[in-house]
Amino acid sequence: MLIVTHNIEEAVQMADRVVVLGSHPGHLIADVKVDLPRPRDKHSAEFEAMVDNLYAILTGSNPESDLESQNTDSAEASDSPSAVADSLPAEQTDAEETEAAAIADMLIQKHHDAEVEAKQNEEQADAGEQKPEPVAVHLLPNATPGGMAGLLDVISEEPDGIDLADLAADLSFEIDDLFPLVDAGTMLDLLTAENGHITITQAGQEWHNADILHSKQVFARLAIEHAPLVHAIDQALSRNRNGKLRGELILDLLRSKHTDALARQQFDIAISWGRYGELFDYDADDDELTRTVETAPLNGVAR
Q1: Is 192 helix (H, G, I), strand (E, B) or coil?
Q2: Residues 64, 25: one domain?
Q3: 220 in a domain, yes or no?
Q4: Domain enclosing residue 257, as ranges
């Protein structure tokens, strides 16, 4: 019998085998055998370990999670593991900057005329040039700054971190309910998640311990550095002479890449994060985005 679910605990509770699928394009991420005895106790160490393992696979923190990359990269990785490990921070920073630039271009550039674009493609083909691959855009997790702050309140009390399963049990929530908050925290470098173990970072501690004004400045800096859509909107506003843009413009451009519902969700999340960090504000009545005047430097982060 085949069951499709987005709930990790449900999968571990019911299945003898869990197949994890990825999207864009659809591909196999992992095939995991669940050999726990029945009846299964969701509070047992073995059950929680299996849940943590599947969470690590879903979030990509398990090095053996992607079957395809494991097969193609294993030889190369074994030759120079230290070089690969040392290069990750710089590569991650470059990827974030490229992604933010791609979104900014999408937000501030006008649509090309179809004939002009076709002509450009034809010229590139004649010259033997390959069309550049589109930059992957990471979606903002559906989490509020208040929710992230509440999560850090709990995690900060655990100096060595806490397992995701234990965190869910302490809060009386399902593990899946915590995914958006954990994903947002890892995106903004507020916490790390490795093999289902959640630990607060130095930046997370700084934000958690800050007063109201400083907490907004810390959040603004992290959003500019790590949340490409927030960065792109702030950049687009800064390039506009009066520091204002129509919200519908942003939505229309997001709709060119996403469904209407997802575009609206991403827009709302970006507004929520931008408002909290006092980067920009949005007047829904006038459909107007306004860039907030910078009152203090963001520790060297350019706006």
Answers
A1: strand
A2: yes
A3: no
A4: 227-291
What is the tens place of the pLDDT at every residue in 197-251?
999 999 999 999 999 999 999 999 999 999 999 999 999 999 888 889 999 999 9
**pLDDT tens-place string over residues 130-165:** 654 444 457 999 999 999 999 999 999 998 999 988
Q: Please, what is the average pLDDT of the chain?
A: 79
Model's pTM, two decimal places? 0.66
The stretches of 109-192 forming alpha helices (DSSP H) are 114-126, 145-155, 164-171, 175-187
For the chain, the domain total comes to 3
Whats the size of the chain, residue-wise? Answer: 303
**Interatomic CA distance for residues 289 and 250, integer angstroms:** 9
CATH number, domain with residue 189 = 1.10.10.10
Q: Per-residue confidence at 10, pLDDT binned at 50, 70, 90? A: confident
Select from 149, 154, 158 the least CA-distant residue to 190: 149
Beta strands in the chain (DSSP E): 17-22, 27-33, 162-163, 191-194, 197-200, 244-246, 280-283, 288-291
Whether residue 78 lies inside any domain: the answer is no
Nearest by Cα to 36 from 2, 5, 12, 52: 12
d(CA 195, CA 140): 22
CA distance 255 to 263: 5
> What confidence tens digit (pLDDT) does each residue in 24-76 have?
667 888 899 999 999 999 889 899 889 888 888 877 666 555 444 444 343 33
**CA dist., res. 81 & res. 20, Å (int):** 26
